Structure formats: C-alpha cells, structure tokens
Amino acid sequence: MTSIDFTALSAKHTSDATRARLRKRYWAEVRLKAYGIIAIAFAAAALLLLGSTIVTKTLSVTHEYYLQLEPRIEASERDMERLTSDNPRLRANLRRPVSESLQAAVPGEISRRDGRALTGIVSANAGLELGDLAKADNSLVGQTVAFDALLDDNTQLYLRGAFGRPQPINSSETANVIVAEGQPVVVEVGPAALSEVFAVLRAERSFQAERAAAERDRQQNAVDVTIDQIGEASDPEQIALLERRLDAYERARDAAEARRTELRRQATVRREITFEMGEDDATLFINIGGGWLKAETVERERVTGAFLEPIPAGTYAEGSWQALMIERPEARRPISDRQVVWIENFDAQGKIVQKVNSRLLEASDSASAELAGIWGAIVGSFWTMVVTFSLAFPLGVMAAIYLEEFAPKNRVTDLIEVNINNLAAVPSIVFGLLGLAIFVAGVDITLFGTEITIGGFLPRSSPMAGGAVLALMTLPTIIIAGRASIRAVPPSIRDAALGLGASRLQTAVHHVLPLAMPGILTGSIIGMAQALGETAPLLLVGMNSFIQEPPGDPFSPGNVLPTLIYQWNSNSERLFDDKTAAAISVLLIFLVAMNALAVLLRKRFERRW
Amino acid sequence: MLPLTLLGIVLLSLVAFALCRGHALALAAGRQAALHSRPAYHGLYALLWVLLAGIGVFAALDIALSGLFDNLIRGRIDTRAPDLSPIQQSLVYSDAVKLITGGVVSTDDALRREIGALWASYNGWRIALVSAGGLVAAGIAFYRAWAQIALNFRARNRAERMLRGMLWTAATIAILTTLGIVLSLIGETLIFFQRIGWQVDAFLFGTTWSPLAGVSEGALDPTKVGAIPLFVGTLMITIIAMCVAVPVGLFAAIYLADFASAKTRSWAKPLLEILAGVPTVVYGYFAAITVAPALRDFGSAVGLSIASESALAAGVVMGIMIIPFISSLSDDVINSVPQSLRDGSYGLGATRAETVRKVVIPAALPGIVSACLLGTSRAIGETMIVVMAAGQGANMTFNPLDAVTTVTVQIVMLITGDTEADVAAAPAFTLGFTLFCVTLALNVVALRVVRRYREMYD
C-alpha cells in the first residue's frame, strides 16, 4: 500500500499557481454574474426610457390653451338658419366675429396679410365653437360675449416652448430709443448690454461658416469629378456640355468660399462690427411695455430695426426695458416674429388660459392636430374586440373541448394540433393578407367556366372585418389555454360523472367545462389583450382610414387605437407626436387593466387539484 | 331585411325547442321515465335541426344568388358598353349600386340608371328568395323533428352527435385557416409570376425593387421586381435585433435561473414580461421618436452620418422587443435541466459559473437554439417597428447606418398605398407568401431541433 503524503498534497492547494488559478475561476464567476445583471439592467433601462418618453409626452398634452376673447356675435342669414335649426349636425362657423374680436384685442390697424397671421394663432375650429355657443342660446346673437377660443396647434406648441420662447438677456444699461420719420428705429444701449447677443451671433456665424465650407468641398468634389470626365470624354458635344457644367460648379464653389470667408470673419473679428440679422439668424427683440422692436442690424452699442408694436421714443432706465432673444431662426419655426409678439402680449395680459384637455378623449380623429381625439378609435376598438371575442371564444372553447375530450388519436387530430401550433407562430401581417383576400376583397375562382367570388362579404375598414381577422389570430391562443386548463381538471371528476350515467358530452359540458372556465377565461383575456394591441393585420384590411365619426355599428368604417397611433405618428404636424403618446397611454391603461383582470381571475378562481 | 330573417330563424328554433319539449312531455303523460331521452333533449334536437337547416339554406342561397346576379349584371354591362375597360365597368357597377342605395356617384347617366334598376330588381329577388328559402327550410326541419318525437326516440344520442359534429367543425377551423392562408397567398403569387413571364429568378435574385414602376397592360417589368434589397434589409435588421436580444435575453435567463435570489426574480421576471406585453406599435413609436433621433444626433456628434431611418434604430428596438421572448423560453429550458446534474458538477468542485458553462448550457442547448430560431422568425415577420422606423425605399446596402426596407414594410406600403388594388396585390401577396414560407420553415426547424436533440432525463 502506498502512503499518501498529505503535506505535499495540501501544499499543492496553497501554491501560488493554484491561488492564481482559483482567482481566475472565481473571477469568471463574477464576470458571468455581472453579464446577467447588465442584461437585466439593459432591459430595465429600455423599459424605463420607453415609459418616460410616453409619460412626459402625455403630460404635455393633458392641458390645452385658450385665448380669452370678447366677440360680438353676428350671424348672416345662412348662419342664422343653422343656429336655429334643430339638427345638431348643422353647425354655423362664426369665423368673422372671432377674427374681428382678435383684431380688437391688439392695438393699431392691421394689414390684410397680418390679419391672416393673427387669425392663424387661433384654431380654425374656434368659429364653429362660437357657433355652438350661439346655437345653445340663440339670444346671444347680437351681443358681446366672453368666449375662450382654442389656440392653433402651433401656437400651443409655442406656448409650451417647443420652438423656444424669447429669453431675456443682459439689459443692465439704459436704452435710448430714437424714432425718426422714414428712418429705421435706432436703440442705443451701453456697451455691456449686447455682449451676450454677440456671443450667440458669433457662434451662429461660425456654424454657418462650417456649412459653407462643407458646401465648398462638395462643389470642389463635383469640379474634380467633372474634370476627370472631360479627360475621358471624346465626343466634342459632350465635352462642351461638361465644360459648361464645370464652369457652374466652379462658380458655386467660389461663391461658397466667399461666403465662408465672410462668415468666418464675422465669427472671429472682435472689433467694431455690424451684424445683419437675416432669415437664418436668431431673432433679437427689444421689449418696452407692450412695445416690441425687432432688430435688423446689431452693432456694439446700437440696434437698428423696425417696430412690431410701437415704442415711444425716449430714454429708458435699467430694468424698464428688456432685450430678448429666440435662438431658433424665424424661417425654421411655424410661428413668425409678428405672431410671437401678439402671443407674448396676450400672455402678459393674462388672456391665455389653460384648460384640461378633455377633447383628447371625447373627440374623434381630425386633420387639425389641436382638434384630434381618440374617442372614435376607442369605439372602433370596442366593436372590434366584441367581434373578436364573440367569434374566437366560442370557437376556441369548442375546439379545446373536442381536442381534449373527444378527439380520437388519428391523422386528422395530429394535423389539427400541428396546425394550431404553427398558426400561433405565423406573422400577424400574413393574417392581414388572409383577411384582405378572404373577408374583404374575395378570391376569384373559375369553376365550370364561370368566375365566382369566394368571400368578400365584410366591408373594408369595418370593425367586423378587423375583428374577424383578429379572431383567427387569437383562436390558437384560446385553444392552447383552453386545452391546458381542461387537461388540468382531474380524471376523477370525469369518472364520477360517467359513473353516475352522464354521457361524455354531459360530462364535458356540465362538469369539466365549469371547472376549467377560470383558466380558459384567463387565457382568453390575455389573447384579447394581444389582439387589442395588434396593428399590422388591421392596416391591411383598411382600418387606417381617416374617419371622423365613431362607428355606430361593427359594419361601418372605423379605426382602432393602434392604427390611430400609427396614423398620428406618420402625420407631420408636431402636436400629433405628443397626442400619439397620449393615445398610447390610453391603450396601455386598457392593456394593464385586462392583464390585471386576468391575474385576478387566476388568483381568485384557480384551483390546484 | 336579411338580418330580420336570420332573427326569425333563431326565434323559430326557440319556438321549436319549446313546442317539441312540450310534445315529448305530453307523450310521456306524467311518466317521464317512459321517455328514452329527457324532454329537453327532444327540444334541443329540434332546435339544432331548425338552426342548421335554416341558416345553412339561407347562407347557401345567398352565396349562390349573389354570384349569379353579379355575373348577370356584369354580363349586361358588358353587352351595353363593350368598349369600356374592366375597371371602368366595375366603376359603372359600383355607381349604379350607389344610385339606388344613396351615395356619392362619380357620374350619373342612362347606363348607370339602367344597371341600377336591374340591380335593384335582382336585389329584391335575392332578398325574397333567400328569406323564403331559409324560413321554409327551417319550417321543414321543424316539422321533421316534431314528427320524429316518440317515447323511444333516441333524441339525446342524436342531438349529442350533432353537437359533437359542431365541436369537430370548430376544431378544424385551424386547418381551414392554414388552407385559407395558403390558397389566398398562392393565387396572387401565381398571378404575379404570370405577369413577369414566369421568371422566378428575376424575383428571387434581382436587385432592383420597384414593382409599380414598370406596369403596363397588366404585365410587370421583370427587371424591377428583384426582391434581394428587401431580403438584405430584412436580414440586416433581423441580425441587429438578434445581436441585441440573444446576449441580453440569454444572460438574463442564466442569471435569473442560477444566480438571482428569489427576491430579485420576483421583480425581474415581471419586468421582462411587461416588455413582452407592450404592443409593437408602441415599440415603433419609441423607435421613431426616441431611438432614431438619438442615434442620428449621436452620429453627427461623433462625425458619422446615420440616417434617421437607419436599420440600426429599428433593429435595436426590435431586439428589445424580442428579449423577453428569448429570456422566457431559455429560462424554461434552463430550469428544466435537473438539479442532479448541477449537484454532480458542484460535487466535483466546479464553481457555479463553470457548472453553468460546462453542464447547464450544453444540456439546455437545443432549447436555447430553438428559442433563438423562434425569435428570428418573429423578427423577420415583425411589421410595425420597421414600418414606423425603417425606410421605404429599396436601397441595396450593407451599411447598418443607412435606411433599408424590409419585406413587411413593402407589403404594407403596397397594400395601403393608393395604387390600384389589382396591380399592387400581386407583388404584396408574393412577398407575403415568401414570408410565410420562411417563418414556417424556421418554426418547423426550431421544433425539430428540440425534438431531435433534447436530452431525456428522469
């Protein structure tokens, strides 16, 4: 028998090499653990980012802005007819009183073009809403009433700061306003007052210079390419054409270079300099009381410009005047400087009020972002779900009962099972194509020489068609859930029923099904929640149409929440972005409620045998 | 009118139930045991017959007569105005119907009025015949069921056989759906290939996709229906998605199964499930509004030009969508590896990480591979994220920072665009058929992998 040298063996476990190896092995463990934590943190971060995007955007549209006006309601004969009619669909658009009251609310005469810009800050719907007010109480006609006019979507975005509002900059000096007939207005200020403005303008110039440089490089590249082409070309006519083109490229390059040099100079030179404020520049305002001046040229100690609202000439002490700046150039925002001044003055007078945005839930879709709401889509979703449930639930439960309680073990049963499992994994858009072909358009088949159309019995865009497609998609989910919960009912229940003389159908319907029902319902609710969020197949059966009325029945055209979200998201009006988030929030609330109901059902009624 | 008839048939069936039940009771004359079946089963038997016969005849007549009258009207339009194109003829048809039912018509002329009158008379006939046929059939069925009632009539067995037939029919809907998918897709696919002169290779290997550009006289331009750019785009977005989803999903599953405390599991698992419950349209919004602009700004900050509809943004968000799919499927298979295997590994001195890497993962590999394949199939078929965040133009590029388009995007664009449905449907359904085949193959392979390589324990 060989003896074991335990000292040597234990030394083996304490040697440096072993220690290093052990460290490495444990380090690998730490690493694997860290990967797992990072993975979960990534998922959590994604969820958090998704949630916060939606919540912040939703919160930004919980309120909408109104402008308090005092229009005198005057109605033409045609309007009067509508105002006195009993038909609620006949609405009078009292556009004129609204725009007149707007003009009365701003000082001074307004040109026709400015008048349009002024009317543009309130919603096009304001006239209709004033009409509704007058329709509810006809005695208001001819009187001056207090009326809150809904603001246009871009005005609302402006008020929320989407394009930047005028930011006050350093104005710690006195300002001297000089007004001369036929001359631009001059405001003289102390040297420190405009330093911030210069910083912003220089940064802007330097950015524009970079863009000009990029443009120059692009043109230079075109020049190089064209020179190569001329070298390769042989046809004299083509060479002439290319040379003309080369000439144009060279001129464009030189122009860009000249522009770049000038911009660069303005960006760097610190001596006396005059900035011309063009369309691509930030806007500088001088605001004194309700009077506004928009700067056209800026020098170190003086600003030249034109009044948007007049300021009396004179000297203004520190604190009584303000220089304000909007960094985004006028050309790149939908609200012009003229409109900014009106809106800021209204806001300073306290005429702009916020109200809870109940319109979002009560109105249906609209082309104007400020008017659009989700009620029509909620109704459409409701009808679609009703159709889906009333088709998929009975069929699913029946199929589940058959497969678990009656199906013989044969080819057909196997085929059915394979089919159900495969259908659960078919992409939803394929179901959309199926629905389009079979339910909506119909398939043309030539039989015995005559062409007949199979299917095509459901109207396009209707909740009926959408619901039928979703029912086919939900069916596998319900069947699989139904089979699982029927299987969970212990055989003893069946044996007892059969032993007492019940038929197999009676056993299944009277005894097994009631016990399996909570499980089936749970599965069905989860399937319905998936169907509620489904979009792609519904796009294909036309449920993304622009529909301004909630569907009254499952056969009239409608859309659903997910397709409305898709439509709004593809709309270019910016307010729709935020309203989309609000629609998503509502959809998510429904989904959470349905899943909570499923969890509750499971907790309350699920029995373990 | 027709819904009223249906309601009438349903009411008749209820009446049949009540009358037949009463008749059976009367026959028994107070001794219910004399009846083979309980009275309610006699009623049920009658009810089922009335419903089946009434609704069956109703539906059959409606389909047959609609088809017949439709053909007659089209024939009449064709004889009246033979020089109109088929599209104009259907316009005449739809206008004529609108003249009668009230609707906005494109033009109003003598032909349309004549066809409208014809349609109105046919429609009246159809409604009358269908209603009469349905009700008469229901009545006959009622009479037969009534006549059959006798003391020893096996009403329960007969009614149950009918009900079982109905259960069987419900179960076969799954087969019918698959058949419907295949038939509706194949029909248009054949039309598509016919229109490009059966050059299947032009579709499978062509590199220019612009199917609506070369349409003339019902034939498509075979040089413009190459789907390779779509396949490349789909593949690229799928690969990006899987690059996000597989590592994150897998590591999360491993951590949750073998390292995390019960407390961590209790919040981390629902968190992943929430990701699974978010509708895809919401992910699409997230990709389009948050991720894509963020990536573009990041790109311009570091001097990369990233398209605002880049494959990267759509792919990453799609990956996030698939994480819970991979993690929950992998979690299941990792958990199903028996504890005894782990204990054996620990007993030999392996650390937990070594056990996971050398014992658990190899044992769970078939399941994990199958989860990845199913995830891939999901990514390929996913629509909303790419429709909202990926490009629409078919660029042939391998750069993930550029805009690419996918098969699903093109299907949606073709069907929801304003081109004639007749022209746009063929390429769209062909793409759909390709998609169906690929995802089906992936699913079948995924199931095969599990079945073939699964380790059997116990």
Can you describe this structure?
The complex is a heterodimer of chains A (609) and B (458). Chain A has helices at 6-14, 16-59, 77-84, 95-105, 112-119, 126-136, 153-159, 195-232, 236-268, 337-348, 359-362, 375-406, 411-423, 428-441, 463-487, 491-499, 504-533, 536-540, 561-569, 574-605; strands at residues 63-69, 147-150, 167-169, 175-178, 185-189, 275-276, 283-288, 291-298, 302-309, 314-316, 322-326, 352-356, 443-447, 450-454. The longest helix of chain A has 44 residues, at 16-59. The radius of gyration of chain A is 36 Å and the shape is extended. With 609 residues, chain A is of the alpha+beta class. The mean pLDDT of chain A is 88. Chain A has 20 helices and 14 strands. Chain B has 458 residues and is an all-alpha fold. Chain B is 78% helix and 0% strand. Chain B has 15 helices and no strands. In chain B, helix 2 packs across helix 3 and helix 2 packs parallel to helix 5 (155-195). The relative contact order of chain B is 0.08. The mean pLDDT of chain B is 90. The chains are: A alpha+beta (609), B mainly alpha (458).
How many runs of DSSP E, i.e. beta strands of chain A?
14
Which regions of chain B are unreliable across 5 or more consecutive residues at pLDDT < 50? none
Strand content of chain B: under 5%
Q: Which pair has the most extensive contact?
A: A-B, 90 and 90 residues
What is the count of DSSP helices of chain B, taking H or I runs of 4+ residues? 15
Q: What is the H/E order of chain B? A: HHHHHHHHHHHHHHH
